[in-house]
Amino acid sequence: MAGSGPGVPAAAGAGPGRPAKASGGRAASAGDGAAAAGLAMPGDADADRHWLAEAIELSRRCPPSASAFSVGAILVAADGGVIATGFSREGDPHDHAEELALAKAVLADPARAAAPRAGSHPGPGAPPPGSQPAHADPRLPGATLYSSLEPCAVRASRPRTCAELIIAAGLRRVVIAWLEPPVFVDGGGATRLRAAGVTVIQLPELAAAARAINAHLLPG
Asked: Do 19 and 32 contact (CB within 8 A), yes or no?
């Protein structure tokens, strides 16, 4: 498995936009002081580019494959703290990046999960209290998922697609670099998410960087 690339949030030290992380790919817990530390807060155009670039760098850590894309994903809380990260084939040949990031957030020890910021309110369409899994990080409903590739809407390796998992987790915002090309399966994840009320933003200016990591899989 390749080492961490420049800018990848797995780096040990904390810095602007890169909080120190606990085990399991999670950010250091409650009171990271994300906003106070000047971390990039999702929703701002520069912050979205920053976090999506980080997800693309994370995809460089994927074990090589001739039959699956290399994807990086980062879950970022509304205050700019990293909730969890994931990359393709991180622990198993069938792992998808978004699936892993969500699994880490849902399985996180609730005692270590950061509490929502005082005075914060769920956005329009957010799931009602109690609809999240019992051990989900409470920041999930307000979080943004950054993925270097459109989340899958068709999948043969596991029962649930990444689009389904994102919807089930109650996420309301996803930012991607490029749409999945029909190399292995049809795309459509962005359409599926939007139909469920999830905001999906594509930053085409970062698509070339994400594609380059998967160039060996694409038609000449």
From this structure: yes
- What distance in Å separates the CA atoms of residue 74 and residue 43, rounded to the nearest whole number? 14
HSE value, Cβ hemisphere, 13 Å, CA-based, for 192: 19
Half-sphere exposure of 117 (CA within 13 A, CB side): 17
CA-nearest of 65, 85, 81, 44 to 1 is 65
Quick: pLDDT tens for 79-107: 999 999 999 999 999 999 999 999 999 86
Helix (H) or strand (E) holding 188: none
d(CA 84, CA 23): 10
Write down all domains in the chain, each with its CATH number in brackets: 23-114+134-217 (3.40.140.10)
Nearest to 203 by CA among 174, 170, 163: 174
34 to 78, 126, 141, 219: CA distances (angstroms): 10, 22, 17, 42
pTM above 0.90, yes or no: no
